[in-house]
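Rotation project, supervised by the postdoc (A.L.). Task for the rotation student: set up a whole-complex structure prediction and record inputs and outputs verbatim in this book. Inputs entered:
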Amino acid sequence: MEANLLSQIVFYAFAAVTVVSAAIVVFARSLIYCAFSLLFTFFGVAVLYVYLGADFLAATQVVIYVGGILILLLFGVMLTHKLHDLDLKAETFQFVPGLLIALAVFATLLLVVFRTAWHSAGPRAMQPTTAQIGDLFMKDFILPFEVASVFLLVALIGAAMIVRRKPR
Amino acid sequence: MIGLTHYLVISAALFSLGIMAVLTRKNAVNVLMGIELILNSANINLVAFSKFSSANLDGQIFAIFIIVIAAGEVAVALAIVLSMYRLIKSVNLDQAGTLKG
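Outputs recorded:
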């Protein structure tokens, strides 16, 4: 019982970290603050995956989002600003209409979440998932797996082609 | 006890914050951050339903494919942002109005 209470407290703490740092991403005045609070959001989501018994997915989240996508976004921030203006303002426009639409979306989603009687099969027991996921990728999901590999290759070549300087 | 609705509420909050970022931010890189928030919220939903409402791991597999597509998307989008910066010397979306009639 004691351990259960502790795990609930940790869950709420990390849920708060996730949502608050996501709010900082949206409302902060500086681009650097946005990028670094996105780091905490990604870590918080990884912790939620651990709570959901998705150990492989949590590791993937940390490696790909934190190690890859966040670094790319920081590169994007740095490469698209002159080095001498270091304030890196994150400006907003249409603030009030955007806020209203976001609140409407949130209210609708909450309504749906609490009104629907979700089908429940009972929570699955915690167990390692990596071997099962590898099995599924090599058996049931072999075609999407190969398509995803080709997609990544195409995306990389496309990105390199887009940023390449055209020869004059 | 932490149930399905907890995760759904967190994911709804992340989704609307992402919508907010996409709608109100001027900087293109900042809009990309909002898109990442939206993709993460969808992932939380998929994994939560995979744990609470189904007997197999299909939701987690789907979440992995979403992560793969997010990686490809952010690479291509940043390439577009960089070439936009090269073209108009700015990444503010309200200045990219060349096609406006």
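Student's summary: Residues 4-91 of chain B form a domain with the Helix Hairpins fold (CATH 1.10.287.3510).
Supervisor addendum: The CA atoms of residues 35 and 97 of chain B lie 21 Å apart.
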